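Figure S4 source data
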Amino acid sequence: MPSKSNSSLRRVGTVLLLGVVAGYGVRYVASRMAARPASGGPTSLIDWDQARKFALRVSQWEQAGIPERARRREQYERLVGRSEPLIAKYLNVQLPAPINRVYVVDRREWLEANFSSFAVVFKPIEELYERLGARQNSLGAALGTINGTIIGTQMGVLLGFLARRVLGQYDLSLLSPDPEIRGALYFVEPNIARVQTQLGLSDEDFRLWIALHEVTHVFEFEAYPWVRTYFNDLLRQFLGLLTDQLATAGGGLPQMLRRLVGGGASGAHWLERVLTPEQQRIFDQLQALMSLVEGYSNHIMNAIGEQLLPSFREIEARVEQRQQSKPLFEEIFNRVTGMDLKLAQYKQGEAFVNAVAAQKGVAFINRVWDRPEHLPTMDEIRSPQRWIARMGG
């Protein structure tokens, strides 16, 4: 189960992971180009049909419907409405408009929404792949088809697994061409109902607990519009670096393997070791922002949760106990996909926010939302006193 309730940012981590994997798939095909064009058209980098097939199969969506969908939507809209003024008061900021994009979804619907987002994110790499694929011979085209099937399978398994775990998600419309589009709140009701029953929690209180966390993300990205722009710019830079690297002669699979093996003694996570230094720089900025966003949301949960929920501590304790008893398969999955790296950094983000707020007060920590220059680095998140000193505290 995701930290607190959210997996939207873990999904961003999945984008980065798949970006690296997909990028090296492009490089693999490029290394096998021949002089003469293939007789058929270019193959796709990602076999989206394969991805959907595996995602739906892994998600087991048919076994998890939504009884009384209309009643549940009214409930979530009401809970979002209760959360909004409390968060606005704590942050001393108002949203530009009331939250009105609230959706109650099943696993299949959540998957379709995320596949739409992923298609936008991967478009630049897909276009490069198609340009390279147009110059392949028949053998290269066949290898490209196999490559697309493999990456589609990987994406499908990743998203299918997440679809069974995610409870709530704030979708900030990654890389949307429309800068004015607002994010959407998704509540994956079958998963929420399952966890609520397993943990023996109150129907209303548990859903309010989830809504509070997700509404915090709305404030972080919509009350401070520059955050979304900054986030999208970093993501474009990361994918752009990957695309530029793959379009040149360097940066192929052998180089990646050398970085992976050679960096073993550093103690860095395997996902970080496969990145080039420039990719690592952007990756660190993305991780710092995601750690702050998730950590700040958890901080607000603790700060105002008890005002809203008499059972807040009970919910926290039972969720934490559930997180501590994850099955071995999930532990391995998190390690292989890099999600354990993100979860650890989200905890560091919460510790950073708590430490600054305890030492300097809420108004001081809220300065992180003033401008990009005020954002902490990963080093500062690990050592809050450095950020306090930089801010003149």
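Figure S5 source data
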Amino acid sequence: MEHTLFKIIDICQAHKLEMTFIHELHQSGLIEIIVQEEQDYVDEEHLPLIEKFSNWHNDLELNIQGIEVVSRLLERIEQLQQEIRLLKTL
């Protein structure tokens, strides 16, 4: 299944973000950047993440390291909740 790609520059303009913010998210492993024809793109599945991380950055004043920690903790909580649901069905 093919996904739509969005130019990072367009995302930054639409959401009033700095390009460095997107690149820092990529460097920390939170999103993936796709380079085609010397242009940086993000897959459509990462748009909700970028919006969420941007809100955390602006509203909660989290830096990239804080965003990374919170994101990893929430992922772990979700995994544990799935395990609990599975164990309850046994």
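The chain has a mean pLDDT of 95. The chain has one domain: 5-89.
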